[in-house]
Amino acid sequence: MTQMFRITLPDGSLREVPAGTTPADIAAAIGPGLAKAAIAARVDGSVRDIMRPFDGDAQLALITAKDEKDALELVRHDLAHVMAEAVQHLFPGTQITFGPATDDGFYYDFAPKDRPFTEEDLPAIEAEMRAIIARNEPFVREVWSRQQLIDRWTEQGETFKAEWAAELPEGEELTIYRQGAWLDMCRGPHMVSTGKLDPAAFKLTRVSGAYWRGDQKNAMLSRIYGTGWLNKKQLDAHMTRIEEAAKRDHRRIGQEMDLFHLQSEAQGSVFWHPNGYLLWRQLEAYMRRRLDAAGYAEVKTPQLMDARQWEASGHWGKYRENMFVVPDEVPNTEDEGPVLTGEGDLMALKPMNCPAHVLIFRQGIKSYRDLPMRLAEFGCCHRNEPHGALHGIMRVRQFTQDDAHIFCREDQIVEEVRLFCDLLDTVYKDLGFDSYAIKLALRPDKRFGTEEMWDRAEGNLRDAVRAAGRAGPEYGWEELPNEGAFYSPKLEFHLTDAIGRTWQCGTIQLDYVLPERLDASYIGEDGERHRPVMLHRAILGTFERFLGILIEHHAGRFPLWLAPVQAVVATIVSDADDYAGEVMKQMAAAGLRADRDVRNEKINYKVREHSLAKVPVLLVVGKREAEEGTVAIRRLGSQAQTMMPLADAIAMLKAEALAPDLV
């Protein structure tokens, strides 16, 4: 008798099908349109090949191009395999390693036989990929034993794959996917065939070096990157964003505006120039006013703390590889002998502020009436990031967090998180970010605390976002399994910039663990000791990274209140030099940040130079303006000039230059 399976569709309807039936069979039974559109299936919540038979009763949802997130991941995974086949066909003897999908495309790491790949190789590889797509080769899934894999890779001279296969667990189901004669180890899933890919919707973008298994002691490989999309329209839009992003690169704009520089003598740390630090100070002053108004108390804590403190907090065991460790001893000053004995106690530069804030909370007896206690710090921290991961001021080793910790009672959690959501919303909008998404990062596999504690913490964060009115699709609400910190779940706030990129900046974490580990307590209404709940929160994340995001979002054209130099007084003729000095003096008295340009250069040259430096306002003065007490105002990006009396111009600019919280 034929075994029958019960398949439940999204509308709740049931279909009884014989063993061996595939999701593609069900799509065909529903209609030819769906059969053509379906590219994969979600079976009991997991994405699978549409040609893979059901294992038993199941919930089924068919995936089409309208399910863009799933469809893009499938397309990019398929393109990675197609690229690997193309490379091995064009460059015989090349070994393959790994090739995952990424957020906007895919890459594959190769061990070339003769020479590293270069970007000159990419057009030929793209052409070969299109030939493979045109052949419409089916993606076929097969289950192999570990020994079969080892034998295959050894026979083919694939030493990297053979090494990896030898480490796979014996009892695990191991799968390969083949397209024609080419195959690779792969968990899948894939689409039906290479022909489902749009040959005009991908582009190979660059080549770089990468170490085998990410270890610099291992062989250097060639990594080829590509971007892949569902159709050419999406690809074109992405390439336009890439071009626009290059124009907005914070490193280039930072140089043009003389904001900062980086150099090898201080890897991962920023040298802020006067203009850049003016920008920093405006942002810091704005954030300080917002925190003061929201009831935060600002503190300052040590940068260097004993390793025993980090052991007690749990960071020493979970985070030590990212910490700068310092021996607590006086170094030897003699020419001979080691500088350090290696016997001193260990200390560490703080990678975060939270344990120090607990130590402040623990000073003196706290009552339930003292809560919530909101401690804020613009704390300088250090993290030992790998050199290869550093990127401008976006990814650094020394950074300043807009950090705060809220110590509260259990019954205050929802309201405190709601207030934080409102504060973050105001700050983002003031800084020019109208759109952001909220994600709830759930418990990771490796974590402290009980299941009941994690259930309670995750539930409180959900309730708080609902109370803030931000749990709907317009806020991109999503839950992220396994993405929480080892001590707490967290809300992540992903803002969208002017060209559609998303950046995770704000966060609030609900922590029951650290107060327990560091013995923080308060006296409750019942006269007994209780543990406070600790909310770790940041809005900007770090000043360095957020300023980089701000530079790229505004393309250096900051609103007047943030601009390091708000105006330049530029002379047309030397007869106006004295008047330019008077204009600048009056602007400074009004609190405006202004420079003057009295160089013996043509005015068009001055306009071009200050436009490149992104100065928002140019006040052009000549002999006539000096005689009449007027200025010609020229805005960045505009050819038009507006003539007005100096007093009126200063009053107008002073009003425009007010920070949003002061208006």
TrEMBL record:
Keyword Nuclease assigned = no
**Residue span(s) of domain Aminoacyl-transfer RNA synthetases class-II family profile:** 249-559
Tell me the Gene3D superfamilies matching this sequence.
Answer: 3.10.20.30, 3.30.54.20, Anticodon-binding domain (3.40.50.800), Bira Bifunctional Protein, Domain 2 (3.30.930.10), Threonyl-trna Synthetase, Chain A, domain 2 (3.30.980.10)
Pfam families in the record: HGTP_anticodon (PF03129), TGS (PF02824), tRNA-synt_2b (PF00587), tRNA_SAD (PF07973)
Print the keywords alphabetically.
Aminoacyl-tRNA synthetase, ATP-binding, Cytoplasm, Ligase, Metal-binding, Nucleotide-binding, Protein biosynthesis, RNA-binding, tRNA-binding, Zinc
Comment on bound cofactor: Binds 1 zinc ion per subunit.
| Start and end residues of each TGS domain | 1-64
Name the residues that bind Zn(2+).
Answer: C354, H405, H536
Q: Which reaction does it catalyse?
A: tRNA(Thr) + L-threonine + ATP = L-threonyl-tRNA(Thr) + AMP + diphosphate + H(+)
A single Gene Ontology MF term assigned here is: threonine-tRNA ligase activity
The prosthetic group or cofactor this protein requires is: Zn(2+)
Localization (cell): Cytoplasm
InterPro entries the UniProt entry points to: aa-tRNA-synt_IIb, aa-tRNA-synth_II, aa-tRNA-synth_II/BPL/LPL, Anticodon-bd, Anticodon-bd_dom_sf, Beta-grasp_dom_sf, TGS, TGS-like
Could you tell me the EC number(s) of this protein?
6.1.1.3
Q: What is its main location?
A: cytoplasm
Q: Which NCBIfam families match?
A: thrS (TIGR00418)
Q: Which family does the similarity line name?
A: Belongs to the class-II aminoacyl-tRNA synthetase family.
> Whom does it interact with, and what assembly results?
Homodimer.
User: Which protein, by its recorded name, is this?
Assistant: Threonine--tRNA ligase
Species in which this protein is naturally found: Sphingomonas arantia
